[in-house]
Amino acid sequence: MTPGTPTTLTRGGDRRPAPPRAARMPITARGRRDMRTGLLLVSPALLFVAVFALFPLGFGVYISLTNWPLIGAYHFIGLANYRGLVHNPVFLQSIVFTLKYTAIVTIPIFVLGYALAVFVRANRRGATAFRTMIFIPYIVGLVAESYMAVVEFQPSSGTVNFVLARLGIVQETTAWLVHTGLAMTAICGLVIWFAGGLTMMLLMAGMQAIPQELYESARVDGASWWSTERRITLPLLRRSIALSLIISVVGSFLAFNQFFIMTDGGPGTSTVTAVMSIYDTAFADFNVGAASAMSVVLVIVVGLITFVQFHFLQRDGD
Amino acid sequence: MAAQRRRASNRPVLYVAAGAAISAVFVLPLLWEVFRSFQPESVVNSPPSAATFGHLTVANYQTLLLGHDDIVRNVVNSLIVALLAAVLTALVATLAGYGFSLFRFRGSGLAFGLVLLAFMIPFQAVLTPLFLELHYLHLLNSLIGLALFYTTFNLPVGVYVMRNSFLQVPGEIVDAARVDGASVLKTLTAVLRPLVLPGIATAALYAFLFSWTEFLGALSFMTNDALFTLPVALSNVETGTYGFVNYGLLLAGAVIAMIPCVLVYVALQRYYVRGLVSGALKG
Fold first, then answer.
1. Of A264, A293, A316, B147, which sits most exposed with the smallest number of CB within 10 A?
2. Which pLDDT tens digits describe chain B residue by residue (283 residues)?
3. Is the peptide bond before B48 cis (omega within 30 degrees of 0)?
4. Domain ranges across chain B
5. CB–CB of A250 and B148 under 8 A?
6. Same domain for A114 and A253?
């Protein structure tokens, strides 16, 4: 796809199977018109991305180097905002907390998603309906479900305590959302239930793309289910596994909604996530410079997570 | 596990029974909340008991939709934003996908990379500068501003899906339209549109669901209660801005938020899955 490479193929003169379409276009008067038209067609998308994604990113870096006030003049203060972060206990705690939360939910989401994918990947009666139903919590979204969870995790009146108390697991009066450990348990449980379906869908798509002949010949050789899974499915699923893990880890690291709705960072600041501490710094403390510095750190951390996982999982693949 | 699965694979009834049980874990809690949303507030807020179990009422929905601080306008706000974002995403992504797939131009690779780069930027991380930018553009407290924001962060997936859709159109069809002298736009609207319609549906569906359920952006960019989208308006219900905390209302509101997602997804799920698959296999 190097732009500007001249090609002189004419229509009909090229019958090789599926060449890149662009390479077939002649550089003629039409070719030059194509260049203008092509650029014109993609320009709205470029404009959106430039104005509402790339510019804010650069603007954020710029603001992070200033003492930006809501009204009035600002001054460059160098890296003072970044130095401030190192001495900001709430921000540091929020980063540690978010990493801990990510570490707790990632493996359960993956294992659950994998098991579900194995269950629904076959072309069997009912499999399609099961896929749809298991995926519904993801589609409905964590926001509506967090509101429902707030009601159901209430002491005395919530369904969770009603059921668990009868099973002898908790007291009827257990107040889940005002205790750090219990709130974490509640939120992690909710999130694993919510996100398992997405991992299932991503892994299932990858599993279905593996040629069936490989399984048939393994079956002929008398390989066990586990060895087939380990020798054929897992290695060929590398890309899907990488994708599902990146989506899940980055999603967890950017968590906000469920914590804002269910604990609002409490008790104290014990469940403040990284994004929540940025939100509070910007929109409650109005410290725009510090919030922007935190955002830059967040972009770098998310970029690193993506990069490391991608390379780790792609290294021996392909 | 292996033995279980082999046994299951030999017996369709067993597979369906296991599947039904597993599915129930994911669907029953939501159905239970729908049921609970029809219980009066006093039942939702007090210990469950068999005596009050059957007391059902539409009072929560009545208060929520017809009361003084009705959330109808918030539902309408959400609909406007989600539909606008869906239409804009579909339109802009279709044009871009057309340009990136069937036209050759200088900087095409770079431009495509820039669009996909937006995929790598978590929108949570540009919230503060975007807030200031929207302020200067007079797009804070604006449903249009919110829809533009949602469109941007749905474009990477949309453009990707649309480019793949156009690349799958047989070259002969594109060439034939050109030979017939059809203009670029005419080729798109008359010849190509039906062929890439599934891709358009995918792009629009993703944008709709994203925008309907999005919370953090709407919370940050809207400060006027009348312009809140439904998910943000429900946080007022949760904290009892209407004078008291009423969990019956909160459940009814959450159910209202849930319904369009389920309907749209069940009706159009093959387009949704298509997007996931193209991302999973080629991403």
1. A316
2. 444 455 445 688 999 999 999 999 999 999 999 999 999 988 888 877 777 777 899 999 988 888 776 789 999 999 999 999 999 999 999 999 999 998 888 888 999 999 988 878 889 989 999 999 999 999 999 999 999 999 999 999 999 999 999 999 888 888 888 788 788 888 898 889 999 999 999 999 999 999 999 999 999 999 998 999 999 999 988 887 655 678 999 999 999 999 999 999 999 988 888 877 765 444 3
3. no
4. 2-62, 69-282
5. no
6. yes
Same domain, A48 and A135: no
Which tokens hold the place of A151?
A: 């009601």
Q: Please report the residues numbered 57 through 86 in chain B whose beta carbons come closer than 8 angstroms to any beta carbon of chain A.
A: none
- CA distance readout (Å), B124 to A49, A275, B27, B128, B222: 15, 7, 30, 9, 15
Domain that holds residue A34: 28-59
Q: Residue B239: in which H helix or E strand, if any?
A: helix B230-239
Phi, psi of B52 (to 5 degrees): -100, 0
Chain A residue with Cα closest to B206: A139
Instruction: Name the amino acid, one letter, at B193.
Output: R
Structural domains in chain A (count) = 2
In a domain, A23, yes or no: no
Closest residue of B to A291, CA-based?
A: B128
Interface A–B counts its CB contacts (< 8 A) at 328
User: Quick one: B69-282 is in which CATH superfamily?
Assistant: MetI-like (1.10.3720.10)
**Chain A contact for B44, CB < 8 A?**
yes
